[in-house]
């Protein structure tokens, strides 16, 4: 490297060189190329995607939009915001649309964090929180988990004068753990009003627990709360990249200033609106998930394997030993799971809930596997 380039690299925002890039689940086509397999014989249970495939209403909405591809999308997302505000009893001024909710998380970091400040989040929390925080040169204030779950008391205690943002994932990924409404309210009562609390509810649609704190319902109580939701999981639009935040209008106004003007494309806007209105699809997603969760848990218990009880559309399995070889064996059999060693969980693998047949493929490979010694 030339000395100029070395200097240039060293001038990067502090924290960027140290951040660990996001490790996505292995794509089906990549494994097919590597092992010479037919993509149709591969089952991907690695990215918490919706196994139902896209809803018909979504495909129709996209088709209707195709003739307008030469135009820029509506940078304000008027129609999607109207649909969201009606559906969730919000005003459009409370909404920030993102290119996936990851984009919204990034907007929050860019709006409130900088060098000399920190973001609080839990050990084993979603990998995007450290990335977005370090990318703007802010410090990570990571709080040890309790039984793989957020320790909210410890998180409140970790907030200091430099803290600007707290990231909470409920349910959390990759652990599937949930905190309840009483725990959340107790936590909020300890957070200074000038610290932003981000409640990441990417999996909220799957939760049936009556004590689940619905962030959107709780928004009126907490002016410093930002709730993020996504169309990537239960709504089945992971590829199109649509997520959103609900917050006080004053916060949304800031986020919308930082946002790229056309961060959600027109196909995604149309698809998300259609997905929001397709209640049958959402209900089918939830039902498939709860049946699949029961199917996989039964198999894990039969095999004597531990797991972290999950409220999401995935379950993280404890193999009680380092899992690289186990993961490789699954890959060789055409089953893609998600290693979580990068989260500090080398003995676990995360399994997304698939269709009944996909789950059975996982179970069959698991049951043929030697796990002793
Ligand atoms: C999947 C996921 C998201 C959603 O990401 P998108 O960018 O909306 O696809 C957000 N938070 C958590 C914890 C997730 O697991």
From TrEMBL:
<keyword id="KW-0808">Transferase</keyword>
<protein>
    <recommendedName>
        <fullName>Histidinol-phosphate aminotransferase</fullName>
        <ecNumber>2.6.1.9</ecNumber>
    </recommendedName>
</protein>
<keyword id="KW-0368">Histidine biosynthesis</keyword>
<dbReference type="InterPro" id="IPR001917">
    <property type="entry name" value="Aminotrans_II_pyridoxalP_BS"/>
</dbReference>
<dbReference type="InterPro" id="IPR015424">
    <property type="entry name" value="PyrdxlP-dep_Trfase"/>
</dbReference>
<keyword id="KW-0663">Pyridoxal phosphate</keyword>
<dbReference type="InterPro" id="IPR005861">
    <property type="entry name" value="HisP_aminotrans"/>
</dbReference>
<comment type="pathway">
    <text>Amino-acid biosynthesis; L-histidine biosynthesis; L-histidine from 5-phospho-alpha-D-ribose 1-diphosphate: step 7/9.</text>
</comment>
<feature type="domain" description="Aminotransferase class I/classII large">
    <location>
        <begin position="40"/>
        <end position="366"/>
    </location>
</feature>
<comment type="subunit">
    <text>Homodimer.</text>
</comment>
<dbReference type="InterPro" id="IPR015421">
    <property type="entry name" value="PyrdxlP-dep_Trfase_major"/>
</dbReference>
<dbReference type="GO" id="GO:0004400">
    <property type="term" value="F:histidinol-phosphate transaminase activity"/>
</dbReference>
<feature type="modified residue" description="N6-(pyridoxal phosphate)lysine">
    <location>
        <position position="233"/>
    </location>
</feature>
<keyword id="KW-0028">Amino-acid biosynthesis</keyword>
<dbReference type="InterPro" id="IPR004839">
    <property type="entry name" value="Aminotransferase_I/II_large"/>
</dbReference>
<dbReference type="Pfam" id="PF00155">
    <property type="entry name" value="Aminotran_1_2"/>
</dbReference>
<dbReference type="InterPro" id="IPR015422">
    <property type="entry name" value="PyrdxlP-dep_Trfase_small"/>
</dbReference>
<dbReference type="InterPro" id="IPR050106">
    <property type="entry name" value="HistidinolP_aminotransfase"/>
</dbReference>
<comment type="similarity">
    <text>Belongs to the class-II pyridoxal-phosphate-dependent aminotransferase family. Histidinol-phosphate aminotransferase subfamily.</text>
</comment>
<keyword id="KW-0032">Aminotransferase</keyword>
């Amino acid at each position: 490297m030339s000395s100029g380039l070395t200097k240039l690299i060293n001038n990067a925002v502090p924290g960027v060189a140290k951040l660990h890039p996001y490790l996505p689940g292995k794509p089906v086509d990549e494994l097919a190329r590597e092992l010479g397999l037919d993509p149709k014989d591969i089952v991907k249970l690695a990215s918490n995607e919706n196994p139902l495939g896209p809803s018909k209403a979504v495909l129709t909405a996209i088709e209707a939009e195709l003739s307008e591809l030469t135009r820029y999308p509506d940078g304000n997302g008027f129609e999607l915001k109207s649909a969201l505000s009606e559906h969730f009893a919000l005003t459009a001024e409370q909404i920030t649309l993102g290119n996936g909710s990851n984009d919204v998380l990034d907007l929050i970091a860019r709006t409130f964090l900088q060098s000399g400040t920190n973001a609080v989040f839990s050990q084993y929390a979603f990998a995007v929180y450290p990335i977005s925080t370090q990318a703007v040169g802010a410090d990570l204030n990571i709080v040890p988990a309790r039984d793989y779950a957020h320790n909210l008391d410890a998180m409140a205690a970790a907030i200091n004068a430099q803290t600007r943002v707290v990231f909470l994932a409920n349910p959390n990924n990759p652990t599937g753990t949930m905190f309840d409404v009483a725990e959340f309210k107790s936590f909020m009562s300890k957070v200074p009003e000038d610290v932003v609390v981000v409640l990441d509810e990417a999996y909220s649609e799957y939760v049936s627990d009556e004590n689940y704190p619905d962030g959107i319902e709780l928004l009126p109580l907490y002016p410093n709360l930002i709730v993020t939701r996504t169309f990537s999981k239960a709504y089945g639009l992971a590829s199109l990249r649509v997520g959103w935040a609900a917050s006080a209008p004053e916060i949304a106004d800031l986020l919308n200033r930082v946002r790229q003007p056309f961060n959600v494309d027109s196909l995604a806007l149309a698809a998300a609106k259609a997905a929001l209105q397709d209640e049958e699809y959402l209900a089918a997603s939830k039902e498939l998930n709860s049946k699949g969760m029961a199917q996989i848990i039964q198999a894990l218990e039969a095999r004597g394997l531990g797991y972290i009880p999950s409220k999401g559309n995935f379950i993280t399995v404890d193999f009680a030993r380092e899992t690289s070889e186990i993961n490789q064996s699954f890959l060789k059999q055409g089953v893609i799971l998600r290693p979580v060693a990068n989260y500090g969980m080398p003995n676990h693998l995360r399994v997304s809930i698939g269709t009944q047949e996909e789950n059975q493929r996982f179970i069959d490979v698991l049951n043929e596997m030697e796990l002793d010694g």
